[in-house]
What does this fold into?
Amino acid sequence: MSLRKAVRAFPALLRVGVAEAIAYRAEMLVWVLATTMPLVMLALWTSVARTAPVGRYGEAEFVTYFLCTFIVRQVTGSWIFWQMNVEVRDGTLAMRLLRPIHPLWAYTAEGLASAPMRALVSVPAAAVALAATGGGLTRDPARWALWGVAVLGAWLLTLLFNFLIGCASFFLESSTKLMDAWLVFYFVLSGYIVPVDLFPRSLGRAVDWLPFRYQLALPVELMTGARGLREGAALVLGQWAWVAVAGALTAIMWRRGVRRFEAFGG
It folds into this structure.
């Protein structure tokens, strides 16, 4: 299907995705509750900071950081790889391949449609908590504009790596273990459980070359004003370079995987 036709069909796919998200709102609520680790870390780190600041973080800074982390996680999260695993394993992906819309477009619409529902549940509560604790967010419009680009990049990175790991199920019995391994690195290196600027300098430089921080820490740092515009813009360029790499790898894995799927009578 051509890109032009896919773009024309996308609003209809989004409407279907929103309807499914509303129909399965209990499942969506469970997903929100399952991604509250930043709130757990908020309690842990603020208790540590009561004794003395940790780096540049006192109690207020940790509260702001982890509330922002919670918000970014909710609006950029994706679990498409679960659905891909199931559909490859039980053969229902074959039905998607018969439709006039590319399956990856359909998966994208389904993932995107659930984001507003998650945000509706999580963002107001986090925003109220931020207001009650004094905020600490940047007031620079240019940083917020850059933040919008970074959030889009973070969402695309998460989606594309879900696709990539989902495509691994064409070659493995299940790629769930692969995602488990990925999540271990994500939790540690993305800023999800500890701010990346608290890492030792050598590890921090290595993290700048890996995709994990661009999935979470970068948007959070722009929200909190931890990065200047010049440095933030350079990091956003690095983020979008990873988006390009992940997109190319996904395209390669998808083509090879679908050929294998069809060859084995999927």
In short: DSSP finds 13 helices and no strands in the chain.
